[in-house]
From TrEMBL:
Its main location: membrane. The keyword S-adenosyl-L-methionine does not apply. It is a multi-pass membrane protein. Part of the ABC transporter FtsEX involved in cellular division. This is Cell division protein FtsX. It comes from Streptomyces colonosanans. The chain crosses the membrane at residues 21-41, 181-201, 222-249, 281-300. Keywords: Cell cycle, Cell division, Cell membrane, Membrane, Transmembrane, Transmembrane helix. GO terms for biological process: cell division. InterPro entries: ABC3_permease_C, FtsX, FtsX_actino, FtsX_ECD. Residues 185-304 form the ABC3 transporter permease C-terminal domain. Forms a membrane-associated complex with FtsE. NCBIfam families: FtsX_actino. GO terms for cellular component: plasma membrane.
Length: 306
């Protein structure tokens, strides 16, 4: 097959259906940009989980005098020194689960509260003796919170056992929901792109039915006749894939590193690096070529009788 003939036919087809070709390029670009963004979001959630789960603590809050009057869990009164020693001793025995135990006094809890919520109207009315003493426990495996909860919930002097991981789970659940929504939009855009590709191939095949009829008469093979149409779709898809890569790189550059500069404004978030972006680009480009080419191939089998 002469490459010059194929290239000339590709150029003719793209120019002849310029409006539909532009629509294909835009829809492929947007859908694959969403696809790449969804992959990066998945990586981001995984990175954040690894970063934050490694820092979460389980907190055992101890009863104070105020709790003894209002909280059913503290009906036996404020925690005693003997109870605190017993709780700490039991924690130190749980070496297979507990990595580190830190004690926070009422004064320390009050200081931390003032630092975090000093502007709150409630902060001015609180006193140190109203704060709760607590043990902050670093687990070797964050998934084993239930071991601590089972061992200390309901024990004398213990007001509650709280797991910070539960708060993070809600955040990650929201991020997964947003990622699923992006994947849904991406799937819709891909369907639109495929329909546009099929219609573009149909129009192109119909407009060149005379040429393809002559080629059949002179004995041209099916692949020889179909190749220009498939290549047209692949080229349009590749242009769209290239734009998707530009969108993805630009999005990472202007939102994380520069422009919005989220990496410097949100220091608590461990953003995925450029290596994660570069690894997605070949996949996007490969998809942008294969998806339109296969769509065109199957469309031609039905609409171009060869």
């Amino acid at each position: 097959m002469r490459a010059q003939f194929v290239l000339s036919e590709i150029g003719v087809g793209l120019r002849r259906n310029l409006t539909m070709t532009f629509a294909v390029i835009v829809s492929v670009a947007l859908s694959l940009a969403l696809f790449g963004g969804s992959l990066l979001m998945t990586d981001q959630v995984g990175a954040m989980k690894g970063y934050w789960y490694d820092k979460v603590n389980v907190s055992i809050f101890l009863c104070n005098k105020s709790d003894a009057e209002s909280d059913p869990n503290c009906s036996k009164g404020a925690v005693t020194e003997e109870q605190k020693k017993q709780i700490l001793g039991d924690l130190n025995k749980m070496t297979t689960v507990v990595q580190k135990v830190t004690y926070e006094s009422q004064d320390e809890a009050y200081k931390h509260y003032k630092q975090q919520f000093g502007d709150s109207p409630l902060a001015s009315s609180l006193t140190p003796d109203q704060m709760q003493e607590s043990y902050r426990i670093k687990l070797k495996d964050p998934q084993k919170y239930q071991v601590i909860a089972t061992a200390f919930n309901g024990r004398g002097g213990v007001q509650s056992v709280q797991d910070q991981k539960g708060i993070l789970d809600n955040l990650f659940g929201l991020l997964r929901l947003m990622n699923s929504a992006a994947l849904g939009v991406m799937a819709l855009m891909l369907v639109v792109a495929l329909l546009l590709i099929v219609n573009t191939v149909r129009v192109s095949a119909f407009s060149r039915r005379r040429e393809t009829g002559i080629m059949r008469l002179v004995g041209a093979s099916a692949f020889y006749i179909q190749a220009p149409f498939i290549m047209e779709a692949a080229v349009a898809g590749l242009i769209g894939g290239g734009l998707a890569c530009v969108f993805l790189v630009s999005g990472r550059y202007f939102t994380i590193d520069h422009g919005m500069a989220l990496s410097s404004k949100l220091n608590l978030i461990n953003f995925v690096g450029w290596d994660a972006v570069w690894t997605k680009l070949p996949l996007i480009l490969a998809t942008s070529v294969l998806m339109p080419a296969l769509a065109a191939f199957f469309a031609l089998r039905k609409y171009l009788k060869v």
